Amino acid sequence: MKKTILLAGWLLAACPAAFAQTHYLENLKLENQQVSKTGSRVTVSADIVLDEMELNRQQSVRLVPVLVSADGTRQQELVPVLIEGKVRSKVTDRKLALGELQEEEGMIRLKRANGEEQTVAYQAETSFAPWMVNGRLEVRGYVTGCAACSEGDEVMAAGSILPYSEPTFTMAPAMQPAEEEVKRRAENKSARLEYRRDSYAVLPEYRTNRAELDSVQRSFALLKDNPNLTVTAIYITGYASPEGSMAYNEKLSQRRAQTFADYVQKHNKDLPKDLWHVSWKGEDWDGFVAQVEQAEGWPARAKVQEAIAQCNDNIDACEWKIRQQLSADDYRYLIDELYAPLRRNDYRIEYTVRNFTPEEARQMLEVRPDLLSAAEMQRVADSYGRNTDAYRKALDTALRTYPDNVALRYNVALAAVDAGRYTKVIALLKDTQDGASLNLLGVAHYKSGDKRQAEQAFRRAVQAGYAPAEESAAKVKEALELLGK
């Protein structure tokens, strides 16, 4: 019993702080702390100031800087720093000399000189992982006593690391489509009448002509009877197919165009004569070439295409050569299927449309959007209020009507951004050359997760003259550098 008491007394004398609570980290300071990312590496540096730390001579403090994820589920320990008291340092030196202990690779080890200024210039590197972004740095202290026994652990919060927040981007407001001083419109159609051989007389009851002429008259009536429209010009152009000589077909197309115009004028006497304009083109050779190109199931197609390729400028000779090469059945197919659509009179009715009140424009958007200007459609959409289904529906109709209108396309895309429909935005703007639209495309790419495409779009927006995209490009570049994506 006496020996046991003496042994306990010796341990207490040798390790006076063995059972005492330690608070070393509260006397430790970090200065010039920095956590940076370069490429795929993260560097942590700091000056660890020990000036106010009074370390018991038998103790050691193992400082382990640790990178911790924002949610605390991931961590990465860095190179440790071992700070030893005077006696503990000597013990470690002796063990190292005797080979009883090996120096931990990369570890910084020093002896604390109590009462003196002492700073550790710490720096460590590790591989970057995305979970480190918006994480934190901790310094964990593990105190060991004279018999290598643990005497407590401490943790010091050392601040956040690799801060990142989703950037906000400047976007141009909705554009206003240009006003149309005069709303000019036109109907372009074709009348394919059938004629007796070598004839140019319009015969309403011949074959399918009655249905064709009725269709023509309906086209005129729809425009004349609409009080919102004013017919301003009618253009009729006659065409012939390549049978016969070019000179003959020139005259034939002229006569057929004129007789067709006379017939239509007779049934539309309320339209002034000075509105009518008649012209003719002779053989529609280009139309014939296109017809052959589309006749994929025709056995003679390749033979005819070869003849066309070799005909040079002598169309009459070329047509004769084609005729000579074809069988009776193939030539009949040529006459009935390929030549027939070329015998026609194209007609174009030009007219103007009056302007509509906002309420009229709302109604017209549902039934005849083509009679509204792009600016009128935009006003209808605006009347519903942005970020409403009616607003988006009106703009979609407007863009279908005017697919090449830059302002409408931008506004539809902007509404899609507001609704989080980034795939739609990318599809709408993928071919745009407009600066503000390219900037919006960059926003959509970024929001959909493609930061590299976003940066490219922002750079193109700057080149196209949209200066605010420069800042957006810089934000994306910073994100790429930090996130490595």
Structural features, described:
With 485 residues, the protein is of the alpha+beta class. It has helices spanning 2-14, 86-98, 209-224, 246-266, 285-294, 301-309, 315-325, 328-339, 358-367, 374-384, 389-401, 406-418, 422-429, 435-447, 451-463, 469-483, and strands spanning 29-38, 41-49, 60-68, 75-77, 81-84, 108-111, 119-127, 135-144, 150-161, 183-191, 229-240, 276-283, 344-353. The chain is built from 16 helices and 13 strands. Strands 3, 4, 5, 6, 8 and 9 form a six-stranded mixed β-sheet that branches. Helix 6 packs antiparallel against helix 7 (315-325) and helix 15 (451-463) runs antiparallel to helix 16 (469-483). The model is unreliable at 1-21 (pLDDT under 50). Keywords: Membrane, Signal. Residues 13-103 form the DUF3868 domain. Residues 1-20 form the signal peptide. Pfam families: DUF3868, OmpA.
CATH class assignment of the largest domain: Alpha Beta
- For the record, the count of structural domains works out to 3
In N-to-C order, the SSE pattern is HEEEEEHEEEEEHEHEHHHHEHHHHHHHH
Number of helices: 16
Helical content stands at: 40-55%
Strand residues, percent: 15-25%
CATH topology of the largest domain: 60s Ribosomal Protein L30, Chain: A
Shape, please?
elongated
Question: Largest sheet, if any?
Answer: 6 strands, mixed
Architecture of the largest domain, according to CATH?
Answer: 2-Layer Sandwich
